[in-house]
Structure formats: structure tokens, C-alpha cells
Amino acid sequence: GVQTCALPIGMPDFDSQKYAYPSRRNMVYARHAAACTSVPQGAQIGLDVMKAGGNAVDAAVAMAAAMPLLEPTGNGLGSDCFALVWIEAEQKLYGLNASGRAPRNLSAKLVRELGFDQMPKTGWIPTMVPGAPAGWAELNRRFGTKPLKELFAPAITSARDGVPVQVNLQPQWEKDSKRILAAMEQNPAPHVWWRQVFLKEDGAPYRSGDIFRWEEYAQTLEELAATNCESYYRGALMEKIVAFSRETGGYFSEEDFRNYHPEWVEPISTDYKGYQVWEIPPNGHGITVLMALNILKGLSMPEQRDCPETYHKILESIKLAFADTKTYVADPKYMKTRVEDLLSEEYAAKRRALITDKAILPEAGDPSCGGTVYLCTADPQGNMVSFIQSNYTTFGSGIAIPGTGISLQNRGGNFSLDEQSDNCLAGGKRSYHTIIPGFLTKDGKAVGPFGVMGAFMQPQGHVQVIVNTIDYHMNPQECLDAPRMQWIGGKHIQLEREVPAHVALGLEDMGHEVEIANRNVDMGRGEIIWRTGNGLLAAGTEPRCDGSVAAW
């Protein structure tokens, strides 16, 4: 059911998409706990869990379970997820990889025979076994203090009561609905239920101020809570997913799900000017961040952040790192190149030597010298979580499983069909993954979690957050407010309109092909929580979306 946002009698109508004047957010201090994400209600759910005695992991799981309802344009019950978890009592950072695997019945050869020269983004081909529900259960098993039934309760109640569609969801909902409706014209069967769930009765996408109710989502969360998410992989929910796949031309089998388990991994890091920056290892491309920072730390950064030289050095470092990771990053079982080689100081020096005062066309080097919602939490005990989950391209594959509230990601769209690539599609394989949680420490102590979501903008956003924080001493809100840049490919870059004109002109003089981005949301959406020297929490949230800090 849908109802349009009703205004009180006498209140004039207004446009929720119009903002004629600049606005400013302040950094938020918290004494005990903080939770940040891109939808205010999501942050509040996390804080409520911690105020009720839950820890940062409990809060993150409760928020993750609510975000597919609050922001279905970015994630769903068919998403993947990754987490970095700081356990204060152990002074240790843990990494969880809950990304999915391709169906065993799918191969690059089969996709090419179907007439594709690259992976499609809609339909069953790019859909992989989702890892998010298993990730929630595993986080809860190892570090949680509250049962899933309690953690999922806010999302269940909200799904039945209905939640307001927030402002920044409207343009994403409108844009991606067109993509999926176009796919329906070619092959309607897999997408019929998606249309029933995510479009209104008149066939229009939801708009900001509409109420979105989702009974099936509530029922599925109840089943997940009752079975510790096992139903999704070895029970009734799995059977529904596989049955719909078989009925509509998909590739899943029961064994694809029964054999799936998330993996605890050792986080990777690099030292950047006395701080340790942490990322999840491949198959994610967080290593791009570390490689770019390895290059940057050997360059002299200008005193002024907003000058052409600063932007140029950041962009050139990102380009060189991306050229390598797009070539070498894959499921670690298939990578021929070692992570330690990609992160070696010797290799960083070789790449750094390629940077001049002119834009370059990056190519992968030889390092053999030796697709979202983001949330973060911090609790009174000092534990912290950096968490990210995603469909990849907005609504993902455009497939929703009838009667379940499960919408499936399209992470397989990042596979290559080139048999010579480490990242070539194969059954049971994990694809190159774009979602990356970040974490910062100093001298073995937690500084805090950070993240910037947005496909291939994510490593670029991480680099800019770290440079803003460490080189230019920005507070977490200023750090996220600062104008952003994005490398697109070749010498083509995008700048936000807030970038000073002299910077854009200077970058053109250096050989960059400059485009001014029309939509700020395309430049990433981030959240940060830092712990201060006196034990307070200092949080910032993304001004380019509906982000919110909930503080206690």
C-alpha cells in the first residue's frame, strides 16, 4: 500500500528535491556511542540497540537488517557484505568477507555462447549466491550479545508500519526502474515480481514522501531470525530461490547455497604518515586504496588542499593503483599476483616515478618484484564496526523472489569473460568486488571506522578521506564536505561543482579531460567515526545523501 505524504492543513506545498541555498552540517560529538548511515532511521536503530545494552556488532547487524527496507535502491536481502570489526578488549581488528559465489552451472563459455561479449547487469547471469544474511548470522555468532530475533525486530515492525521514502532515494528509484523495465521488455519472467514489489499500483516508482510497506520482508526476517539465517542457505527460503531460478531461466542449484559460508579474513594495511589504514583483502578492491596511499606518501603534498597540484597527485596515484587492481584483483584462489607484491614499497616507488606534472594514461605494471549502503558503529566498551552491503547497481539484477522480500544483487557483472583474466567467470568463484569498509588505527589503537560507498568511486573516496584527515587535518564532517574528484578512465576526470574554478582550469592545463559532475550523489556517500584523545567519539556523515549521526 502507498499513501502520499499528507501536509497539515494550512501548510503550503513544497518540493522535496529542491534546495536553492547552501547548507552546513556540524561534526557530532558523542560520549558513549554513535551510529552513522545514509538514512536517519537506520542510524537511530543502531543507537537504540546500544542504549539497550547491545554492542557495536549488535547495532551493525540490526542496522544492516533494516537498510534493505530503508534504502532498497542500494541493498537487499540478496546483497553481499563485508565488515571490519574492532574488538577493544583484544586490541584486534577482524575482517569478514561475506561476498557470494557464482552458480556452479554458469561459465564464461556459456555466457559467450548466449551472445554476450561482456557480463550483463540484469537478469540471472550476473546474480550470485548472496552473502549478506550469512554475514549477519556469522557476526552475531562470533561477537554479538543479542539474539537475531531482537536485532531484527525494529526492521520487522518498520516494514509492517511502513517507512517514508527519503529524499535521495527518489532519483535513484526513478532512474533504475527504467533500466529494469527495459530488461523486462526483453525477458519479463524473472522481473515480474520486482515490478510488483518496487513499483506502485499505477506502475510509477516510489517518490520521496511516499510510505513504503513490505509485509513479505517482515515475514522473511522473522524466518531468518528463527533459523539463524539457515533457511536462506539450507531451508525453505533457499528452495524458493532455486525454484524461481529454474522456472525463469536461472542457473542456481541447491548445492550453490548449501555449500556457501562467509569467511573470516586477515585485514590488509599500509602505513600512511604514522597511521595504519586497513582494508579487506581481495576479492575486494580495498587494496586500491592502500596502493594509492603508498604512492602518495612519497610525494610532497602542497600546503593548500584546493589547488591543482593536490588534485593532480591524488588523481595520478589513484589511476596507477586502479590500473593494477583492475588487472590483478580477483577471487584470491585465482590470483597469480601476490598481495604483498602489490603493496611493497619497491613497487610503490616504481609507480610513483611515473608521476610528472602532466596527466598520464595509466597501464598496469608488473608487481612481481618479490557495487551500496555503508554504516559504522561505536559502543561504550570501545568496540567499533565498519560495515558495507550492496546490490551493486542500485536495484541489482532486477530479480525479486516471489513472496519473500528477497531482491537479488548483480555482483557477477564485475566478472570478465576473458579466459586469460584472473577474474574470468567460473562456477563457484567470487567476482572482483567494489564494496569496501575502511578502518584507521595509530600505534595499535583504534582511531575508527570510515567508508565511502559508490561502486568504483569507493577507493577514490577512501583515499580522499584519508588525505583530508591526515594531510589537511580536517574534522570528520569537513572531511566529507570537501569537494571530490573522480577518475573515470584514460585522462577523463569528474569534479564536483564545488571545486574552485582555478583548480579545474589548472587540471586542464595539466592534460586532464575535465567534466563537471551534475549529481553529487554520484561522487560517493560516506560516514566516519573517530575516537578523540579524551575518549569522545567524533562523527561526520554524508551531505550528498540523507545521512545521519545518532549520538549518545
What is the quaternary state of this protein? single chain
**Low-confidence stretches at least 5 residues in length (pLDDT < 50)?**
none
Morphology: globular
Describe the main β-sheet briefly.
7 strands, antiparallel
Number of strands: 21
Distance between the termini: 35 Å
Give the strand line-up of the largest sheet. Answer: 1-20-19-15-14-9-8
Q: What's the total helix number?
A: 18
Topology at a glance:
Elements lengths: L27 E3 L3 E4 L2 H12 L4 H15 L9 E8 L4 E7 L9 H6 L18 H12 L4 H14 L1 E2 L4 H18 L5 H7 L12 E2 L2 H13 L2 H5 L1 H12 L6 H5 L4 E3 L2 E5 L2 E5 L7 H10 L11 H21 L10 H4 L2 H8 L20 E6 L5 E7 L9 E2 L4 E2 L30 E5 L2 E9 L4 H14 L4 H6 L3 E5 L2 E4 L5 H9 L3 E4 L8 E7 L5 E5 L6 E4 L1
Parallel strand pairs: 17-18
Antiparallel strand pairs: 1-20, 2-10, 2-21, 3-4, 3-11, 4-7, 5-6, 8-9, 9-14, 10-11, 12-13, 14-15, 15-19, 16-17, 19-20
Helix pairs in contact: 1-2, 2-4, 2-5, 5-8, 12-13, 12-15, 12-16, 13-18
Brief characterization of the structure:
This protein is α+β, with helices and mostly antiparallel strands and 552 residues long. It has helices at residues 40-51, 56-70, 108-113, 132-143, 148-161, 169-186, 192-198, 215-227, 230-234, 236-247, 254-258, 287-296, 308-328, 339-342, 345-352, 458-471, 476-481, 501-509; strands at 28-30, 34-37, 80-87, 92-98, 163-164, 211-212, 263-265, 268-272, 275-279, 373-378, 384-390, 400-401, 406-407, 438-442, 445-453, 485-489, 492-495, 513-516, 525-531, 537-541, 548-551.
